Amino acid sequence: MSLLANASVLLGKELRTEFRSRELLTTTVVFILMIIVLFSFTFDPTSAESRRFGPGLLWLAFLFAASLMLQPCFLREQTNDTLSALRLSVEDPFAIFLAKLTANTLFLLLTEFLLLPIFSVLYNVPVLPVLGWLIFVFFLGSLGVSIAGTALSAISAQARMRELLLPLLLLPLLTPVLVASTEVTKALLDPSPYVSWKGIGFLAVFDLVFLTALWLFGEYLLEE
Amino acid sequence: MTKQVIAGVLVVGLMVAAAYAAFFVAPAERTMGLIQRIFYFHAASAWAGMTAFFVCFVANLQYVWRRQQKWDSLAVSAAEVGVTFITIVLITGPIWAHPVWGIWWTWDARLTSTFVLWLLYVSYLLLRTLIEEPDRRALLSALFGIFAFVDVPLVYGSIRWWRTQHPQPVIMGGPGSGLEPTMRKVFFFSVLALHALMVFLIAQRYRLEKLRTELDVVRREAEGL
Fold first, then answer.
1. A:B CB pairs within 8 Å
2. What pLDDT, on the 0 to 100 scale, is given for residue A1?
3. What single-letter DSSP state applies at residue A174?
4. pLDDT value at position B148?
């Protein structure tokens, strides 16, 4: 239980840090908005075309945004060497990851919800009838992105060229999330929507596999 | 030194024999003709590359648990050789596909996941160049290598289920789908030859890595003085 207690304290700290400045959230929202607008120039965004390309573009935008948003996750612990303090304060270093990945999932979800209505309006795709399922898919997908992303940002924070390195490491690793999330979202935005259980199951498996890997190997990522 | 020369001669002999078998022993394929003979190098390289990545994965795990330099040296050697073999696969594939399928590339599960696999290991090698301190480089790249290897089946599954335009490769569904007996023998001989080449290359690269590490230690000591 001390793991969850520790993690929730750390989660509070992550959320406070972000909501004081809101730097990360504002930049990410603007970034995704920009991609969504720029993408509309690359094809004719009628309703039918948007249904074909929209889900993919949405998830690609989320993935790119995440690979930028996850940069400071461990980096900002370096400035005052607060990571050492964190490590000393918890029994199990997995609590640090748990807190950070929960915070990152929340941040991602928040930006996604802010942008979903804008996407719906600009691309003429109604989302209200399937909103519940969309939220569920966004959650599963963003969780996968955050688990892998948090782990890799601990790696990239310790390397040179880290700004470029994180997307390079993260994006190929997230191919399965991109494929499955896009597929499920596409099924939901279809004129006759349906739930792709296979895709949802696949996302759940991805999340589980990487959470287990992080649980097993996370402590090594934080070694001095 | 002599041992290596002997091993080198053996590997060269095997490769020449495999080439001879592929060109002269194996029968010509009925519909594809001569171009099908690239299969003996294409598919065998893929198998050798995958084996190399598996070696890299095992070495990564061993490094994380045991923290011995030799495992890191083995991991980087295997990853580099694996990337080389998969590069050969990605080049010979389109050369074969173009005359047979009429296109250079199709976004089929096996092609695409091989490409993503290649990207993952290129990232692994890139990551290694960007961390200065040797122990940290070894540990962090080993961890990334483990994550990357765990990802491979997921990549394959996702692409197979949702992104494949050719559910089953039209021609040549692999050795399982009924190869002619001589072709089968030649193919497995090629697999053997390319595995021998892979092991030889990894061993050579491993030696080089060991020398480099030694040199690095000496240099650091000299700078420290």
1. 77
2. 61
3. T
4. 95
Looking from the CA of A145 toward its CB, the CA atoms found within 13 Å total: 34
Separation in Å, CA of B206 to nearest CA in chain A: 24
Average pLDDT of the segment spanning B121-133: 94
Which of chain B's residues have a Cβ under 8 Å away from the Cβ of A55?
none
Mutate to test the interface with A, among B61, B72, B161, B165 (most CBs of A within 10 A): B161
Test B158 with A179 for CB contact under 8 angstroms: yes
**B218 and chain A: CB distance < 8 Å anywhere?**
no
Diameter of chain B by CA atoms? 70
The answer to whether the CB of A140 falls within 8 A of the CB of A103 is no
Which residue ranges make up each domain of chain B?
2-220
Strands (E), chain B: none
**HEC assignment per residue over A42-107:** CCCCCHHHHHHHHHHHHHHHHHHHHHHHCCHHHHCCCCCCHHHHHHHHCCCCHHHHHHHHHHHHHH
DSSP element (H, E) containing B160? helix B134-162
Q: How far is residue A107's CA from residue B117's CA, in Å, rounded to a whole number?
A: 30
Q: Is the dihedral of CA B78, B79, B84, B87 positive or negative?
A: positive
Single out the residue of A4, A63, A153 nearest to residue B147, CA to CA. Answer: A153
This complex has an ipTM of 0.91
* Structural tokens at position B71: 């495992």
Q: What gap in Å lies between CA A40 and CA A50, rounded to an integer?
A: 9
Q: Which of A145, A140, A134, A139 is nearest to A186 (CA)?
A: A134
Tokens for A121, please give them. 């309006």
| pLDDT tens per residue, range B161-178 | 887 655 455 445 554 556
Q: For A72-122, how does the pLDDT look when each residue is reduced to its tens digit (9 = 90+)?
A: 888 888 888 888 888 888 888 899 999 999 999 999 999 999 999 998 988
Cα–Cα distance for residue pair A211/A205, rounded to 1 Å: 10
Low-confidence ranges of chain A (pLDDT < 50): none
Verify whether the Cβ–Cβ distance B130 to A161 is below 8 Å.
yes
Which pLDDT score is estimated for B173? 53
Whether residues B127 and A183 touch (CB distance < 8 A) is answered with no
> In this model, does residue B32 exceed pLDDT 90?
no
In the numeric block, the tokens 């001669």 are attached to: B9
- B190 and B40 in contact (C-beta within 8 Å)? yes
Cα separation, B118 vs B225, whole angstroms: 42
Q: Which residue of B has its CA nearest to A180?
A: B158
Residue of B nearest to A186 (CA): B162
Interchain contact, B155 vs A175, CB within 8 Å: yes
